[in-house]
Amino acid sequence: MVTAAIFRAAATVMLLVLSFSACQAQLSSTFYGDTCPNALGTIRTSIRSAIARERRMAASLIRLHFHDCFVQGCDASILLDNSPSITSEKFVTQNNNSVRGFEVIDEAKSAVENVCPGVVSCADILAVAARDASEYVGGPSWTVKLGRKDSTTASASLASRDLPRFADGLQRLIDLFESKGLSERDMVALSGSHTIGQAQCVTFRDRIYSNGSDIDAGFASTRRRNCPATFPNGNGNLAPLDLVTPNSFDNNYFRNLLQKKGLLQSDQVLFSGGSTDSIVNDYSRNPSTFRSDFASAMIKMGDIEPLTGSAGIIRRICSRVN
Ligand code: HEM
Q1: Which helix (H) or strand (E) holds 291?
Q2: Numbered residues of the known binding site for Ca(2+)
Q3: Most exposed residue of 2, 72, 104, 274, measured as fewest CB within 10 angstroms of its CB?
Q4: Is residue 10 included in any domain, yes or no?
Q5: Nearest ligand 1 atom to alpha carbon 270
């Protein structure tokens, strides 16, 4: 009797442990080792050829992974188009006419589908593409954890709520990143991806015409030449986020901030007398610290609320639910 009860209790505990670990399935770098051994090489070839065609694409792909992970986790929800059941995230203010690289992810996905149909998720392709992009333009590399599934839903309202905005103040940015499990140090390191890529006049107009003391006057006047004062004139005109070396991944972004030459307000607030000043100082002096912190923070960002195990699906086409 007693033995049977003990046995039943032990079995129940085992079941609980098993079902808990199924929900908590961990990402792993060898996830496709048996099911698609050529996945990473196939993605890499595709991503490298896209960046060789257009170097800015490296920046766009890193940003795409970020904008995916901050909205209901790294589940490729950002890739879903509007449909009767989906309100796409692509059209919220922070994404509209701004996030790019969708066709590059589609190309990588179809290359992978050719070698192992129905196996590799779009969410994993986004994570691998971001790593390959960083590596290609001289940034750090890291081992990408894999095994994310794709969502069957998107959320425009969460995208609007959770993606940072260029006019956000420091505390708001800190809170947003903290709500995703990322520290101030992670946030500053990740913002260092503004060492590459471009921003549109509409995102920095107010700052360059502010005549404020938190922007270098010469820098503001240079930027005004290609960004007219009146909305919507020249809204889409581009300027490099890092005025010194916009095409290579280095720590000049932080050196610019020390000189009040951050392009976006959300850049300059990281060095404006607040709690993140010391981190910016550190990265401006120690490029290797920035590189290793950036890699760790990207891994952490890639871990935000993934769908694993039986949750989620493998989309055959990234822009729609199967
Ligand atoms: C801290 C809060 C952040 C804000 C407010 C912000 C905002 C922006 C804005 C407004 C742009 C220009 C978009 C346009 O004009 O179309 C941009 C570009 C970019 N952002 Fe951020 N960003 C932030 C953090 C990050 C993070 C964490 C990453 C990556 C991990 C990132 C990666 C990029 C890249 C690479 C670009 C250039 C994209 C391209 O050239 O296509 N940003 N960001």
Answers
A1: helix 287-302
A2: 68, 71, 73, 75, 77, 89, 195, 242, 245, 250
A3: 2
A4: no
A5: 1
**Final residue in a domain of this structure, among 113, 135, 163:** 163
177 in the same domain as 87: no
Residues belonging to the binding site for substrate are 164
Residues 202 and 80 in one domain: no
Give the total number of structural domains in the chain: 2
Residue 143 and residue 51 share a domain: yes
For 5, the token pair is 């009860």
User: Where is the domain boundary, 163, 197, 223?
Assistant: 163
What average pLDDT score do residues 225-236 get? 98
Give the pair of three-digit tokens for residue 62: 């890193």
- 175 alpha carbon – ligand 1 mean position (Å): 17
Q: Do residues 87 and 207 both lie within one domain?
A: no
- What span, in angstroms and rounded, lies between the C-alpha atoms of 93 and 71? 14
- Give dist(CA 14, CA 21) in Å, integer: 11
pLDDT for 180 beyond 90: yes
Closest atom of ligand 1 relative to the 100 alpha carbon: 41
Does 266 score more than 60 pLDDT? yes
20-24, 166-170, 180-184, 318-322: segment of lowest average pLDDT: 20-24
Range of 228's domain? Answer: 170-300
Rounded CA gap, 167 and 322, in Å?
A: 38
Active-site choice (56, 63, 65, 67) = 67
Q: Whose CA is nearest to atom 2 of ligand 1?
A: 164
pLDDT for the residue numbered 26? 87
- Domain of 196, CATH number, reads 1.10.420.10
Task: Judge if 149 and 190 occupy the same domain.
Answer: no
* Same structural domain, 174 and 296: yes
CA of 85 to the centre of ligand 1 (A): 29
Provide the pLDDT for residue 25. Answer: 65
CA atoms within 13 A on the CB side of 222: 11
Residue 196 CA: nearest ligand 1 atom is: 35
Are 126 and 233 in a shared domain?
no
Mutate to test the pocket of ligand 1, among 142, 193, 304 (most ligand atoms within 8 A of CB): 193
Query: Mean pLDDT for the chain?
Result: 94
Residue entry with tokens 């502010």: 210
Q: 3-class SS at 38?
A: coil
67 catalytic? Reply is yes
Q: Are residues 159 and 232 located together in one domain of the fold?
A: no
